[in-house]
Amino acid sequence: MTAIEISCLCGAVKVRINGEPLVQFYCHCDDCQAVHGGAYIGVAIYPSQAVAVTQGELVSWTLKSLPRQRCAICGTPMIARVLGLGGCGVLAHRLPKGMFKPEFHIQCQHALLPIKDDLPHFAAFPARFGGVDDTVEW
C-alpha cells in the first residue's frame, strides 16, 4: 500500500500513514461515546511508527484512560495512542472512502443499542487484545 495523508477539518494538521492497519473495528466503550458524542466509532489501528504528523500541531488529552490527540486550532480528533497494542488509532471517518474494513465490534457491554450485522460482537476486549472472547448475542 502506498502512503495516505489525512487532515483535520481546517487543514492545519496533516498526518501521513504508511502501510496497512493492524486491525480495524467498531468501539462501543463509554469513553469513546463520551469523547465523540456517538453510540460507537470506527477505528483503524496502525503500527505507531507508521503514523507521523507532517504538518501542524496536535494537542494531547485524556478523558479516562486513552491518550488522544486533536488539532490545536480546530479541535478535530485525529489519532489516539493505543499503548497496550503499540499502535496508533485513526478514526475511520478520517480515512479515505472505502479504506475502513471493520473486523468486529468491541466493548459491546456499553452499547446503547444492538447493532445487527455479520461481525463478531465482543462484550469487552477480545483475546487478541488481552481479554476473553465472550460475545453478546442480539
List the helices and strands and how they pair.
Elements: E1 4-7, E2 14-17, E3 23-27, H1 30-36, E4 41-47, E5 51-55, E6 58-62, E7 67-71, E8 77-82, E9 87-91, E10 104-106
Parallel strand pairs: 3-10
Antiparallel strand pairs: 1-2, 2-5, 3-4, 4-9, 6-7, 7-8, 8-9
Protein name: CENP-V/GFA domain-containing protein
Family: Belongs to the Gfa family.
InterPro entries: CENP-V/GFA, Mss4-like_sf
Oligomer: single chain
Tell me the distance between the termini: 36 Å
Please mark out the parts with pLDDT under 50 across 5 or more consecutive residues, or reply none.
none
Mean pLDDT: 93
Mind describing the biggest β-sheet?
Answer: 7 strands, mixed
Under the CATH scheme, which architecture would be assigned?
A: Alpha-Beta Complex
Number of strand elements: 10
Rg calculated over all Cα atoms: 15 Å
Give the class from helix and strand content and strand pairing. Answer: mainly beta
CATH fold type: glutathione-dependent formaldehyde- activating enzyme (gfa)
The name of the CATH superfamily reads glutathione-dependent formaldehyde- activating enzyme (gfa)
Strand order of the largest sheet: 6-7-8-9-4-3-10
Beta-strand percentage range? 35-45%
- Total of helices: 1
How many discrete structural domains?
A: 1
Helix content: under 10%
* H/E series: EEEHEEEEEEE
The CATH class, by name, is: Alpha Beta
Overall geometry comes to globular
